[in-house]
Design a protein that fits this description.
Order of helices and strands: HEEEHEEHEHHEHEHHHEHHEHEHHH
Helix content: 40-55%
Structural class: alpha/beta
CATH superfamily of the domain at 2-172 and 292-380: Alpha/Beta hydrolase fold, catalytic domain
CATH architecture of the domain at 2-172 and 292-380: 3-Layer(aba) Sandwich
Radius of gyration: 20 Å
Strand content: 5-15%
Distance between the termini: 46 Å
Number of helices: 15
Shape: globular
Number of strands: 11
CATH topology of the domain at 2-172 and 292-380: Rossmann fold
Length: 381
């Protein structure tokens, strides 16, 4: 992904982060505006971007420079850091074993929250010598932050704002391809996945390249976008000329266990940790049921960006699982009509309809913070 930034004229950096459970993650940084030399150590607001399920950091730079969140925020003067969760192509390293080992794939978004997110955020703040950052999460990237903020008050102090794009919690009213088959299908899928060894959920790279090549051809672009829309609900905002590029990076790898965890959420309608069964839960958690994340404990200012046309992050789920529990910390709830789940990051309209509002909110807050710090310095000087 740094090469994509370089192709568009952005300075880029690759940083390696070691988690407490010894995964090695890649963070990609865009510290400067397009075709600009800058001092990476200069203080500017940090925006940390976290991708969703079956995605990676490419989600934030999928289109042309003026259409992609990562580049739009960099051009607005922000220090942009893009995460790549464990299991994605850029983060398939571990101190003790590699991706060919079943042990490597023994994780879900729960570990991404507990280990990947915390290690990455603390690394960024140490590297930049700053006190806090602003977080943008999409889809599973919102769940990762919801669960961490619910459990870790000390970590919460490092997140100035949480901007949740297409926020998800239980996804119990999911639509599209998954909703079409119904919960009975999910039950069978859960049984099947539970019998599989810890393994990756991915498309072979050679197959993905072939699909990407075919979908880059003009006559195939509409067919390929329709296929994506069948799962996602819409494809109207996609940059048709980039469809082949989308499919070269998407879907990105995750673990079978991660998908299994999501199926558990749909069925239980609870924002809970992974369910190992009664005996397994006693061994793992010391109780027969998996612990539930208490979102009422979150005190970080949170902004929700959602759509009634998003069949994956359903509005009823947002109301029942998020708004009803976080009403005291929701700083903004913004509906974007006619947005599908992926339009928040892949859609070309987001650069004019969504990102400018977030940029202004962050910049205004950061300016107030700087003014406050100046007043404090004058008082003590």
């Amino acid at each position: 992904m740094p090469e994509i930034g370089q192709r568009f004229g952005y300075e880029s950096e690759v940083h390696l982060v070691r988690t407490k459970d010894e995964y090695i993650l890649e963070l990609h940084r865009f510290p400067c505006k397009q075709k600009e030399k800058c001092d990476p150590s200069a203080k500017r607001p940090i925006v940390f971007m976290q991708h969703g399920l079956l995605a990676d950091g490419f989600s934030w730079i999928p289109n042309l420079a003026n259409q992609s969140a990562g580049f739009v925020f960099a051009d607005a003067g922000f220090d942009v850091w893009i995460a790549n969760s464990r299991g994605t192509p850029a983060s398939q390293k571990h101190i003790g074993y590699g991706p060919e080992s079943q042990k490597f794939w023994n994780f879900t978004w729960q570990e991404m929250s507990e280990f990947d997110l915390t290690s990455s955020v603390y690394y960024v703040l140490k590297e930049t010598k700053q006190e806090f950052l602003y977080y943008l999460g999409h889809s599973q990237g919102t769940m990762i932050m919801f669960s961490r903020l619910a459990e870790d008050r000390e970590f919460s102090k490092k997140i100035r704002h949480f901007h949740a794009l297409a926020p998800v919690a239980t996804v119990s009213h999911i639509g599209g391809l998954f909703g079409l088959f119904g919960k009975q299908f999910l039950t069978y899928a859960e049984i099947l996945l539970g019998r599989l060894p810890y393994s990756p959920l991915s498309i072979p790279r050679t197959v993905q390249k072939m699909i990407s090549y075919m979908c880059s051809k003009f006559l195939m672009q509409n067919i390929c976008t329709l296929d994506i829309g069948f799962i996602d609900g819409s494809e109207k905002q996609f940059n048709q000329s980039r469809v082949g590029v989308y499919l070269c990076h998407t879907p990105a790898a995750t673990s079978v266990k991660d998908l299994q965890h999501w199926i558990q959420l749909v069925k239980s309608q609870k924002v809970a940790k992974f369910d190992y069964g009664k005996d397994g839960n006693m061994a793992e958690y010391g109780q027969p049921e998996p612990p539930v994340y208490d979102l009422t404990q979150i005190n970080t200012p949170t902004y929700l960006y959602w759509s009634g046309d998003d069949i994956l992050a359903d509005t009823q789920d947002i109301r029942d699982s998020i708004l009803s529990k976080m009403n005291k910390t929701i700083a903004g709830s913004i509906e974007l009509p006619h947005y599908s789940h992926m339009d928040f990051v892949f859609g070309i309209n987001a650069a004019s309809e969504l990102y400018p509002g977030i940029i202004k909110t962050i910049q205004d807050d950061y300016d107030k913070y700087r003014i406050s710090k100046l007043h404090q310095l004058r008082q003590y000087s």
